[in-house]
Recover the amino acids of this structure.
């Protein structure tokens, strides 16, 4: 069974601080996605990383895929209250089955 | 497109009753997923379909759960009989498999199920 473990599970920081969320597995994934979920809504895709070592930036968010394609990180610079939400990583197992395995999520609260 | 549409948004039922959750995927998407989300277990994949055919139902917790996709525009998840531990938010998602590794799952707003 392929599992994705996210850490930390909860994070409460002040506006302006930086933070990093980790997504780890003992299994290899073909690609890894990061989603953000707001209360009462479904998750929405932020980014997909495919190549080992790949780094993608989305404004103040930086996503990295580990060289071995088993782990990923999300770094937020100068967090803002609007970044508050649940961040989920999701991995696609090899074989292009269409399946996505989700981590348990990191709940981020950014206080003004 | 209106996105993935789920109904109802909220469902409160008594233990032992049958519950049916409904989903309309995005038109043209060939994958449909049912997920369950709880604080304890996060987002769990229950079952998914490709071109209306169930591909992997290994996440369905018990025989009390069943899912169908009679056509490309409709799917149901049924729980019979329901139990309090089934209380969770159930999400339906769809995707376009031709995008390969960049396939994005589009989620509905979820159905919050409470079994009392």
């Amino acid at each position: 069974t392929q599992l994705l473990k996210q850490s930390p599970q909860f994070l409460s920081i002040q506006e302006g601080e930086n933070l990093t969320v980790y997504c780890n597995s003992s299994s290899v994934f073909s690609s890894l996605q990061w989603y953000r979920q707001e209360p009462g809504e479904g998750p929405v895709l932020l980014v997909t990383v495919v190549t080992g070592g790949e780094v993608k930036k989305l404004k103040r968010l930086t996503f990295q895929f580990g060289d071995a394609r088993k782990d990923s990180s999300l770094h937020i610079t100068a967090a803002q209250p609007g970044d508050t939400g649940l961040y989920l990583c999701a991995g696609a197992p090899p074989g292009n089955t269409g399946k996505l395995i989700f981590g348990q999520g990191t709940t981020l609260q950014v206080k003004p | 497109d209106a996105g993935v549409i789920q109904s109802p948004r909220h469902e409160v039922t008594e233990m032992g009753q049958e519950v049916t959750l409904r989903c309309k995927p995005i038109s043209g998407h060939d994958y449909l997923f049912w997920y369950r989300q709880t604080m304890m277990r996060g987002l769990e994949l229950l079952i998914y379909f490709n071109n209306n055919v169930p591909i992997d139902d290994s996440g369905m917790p018990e025989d009390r759960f069943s899912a169908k996709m009679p056509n490309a525009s409709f799917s149901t998840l049924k729980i019979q009989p329901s139990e309090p531990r089934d209380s969770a938010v159930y999400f339906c998602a769809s995707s376009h498999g031709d995008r390969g590794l960049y396939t994005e799952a589009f989620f509905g707003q979820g159905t919050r199920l409470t079994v009392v």
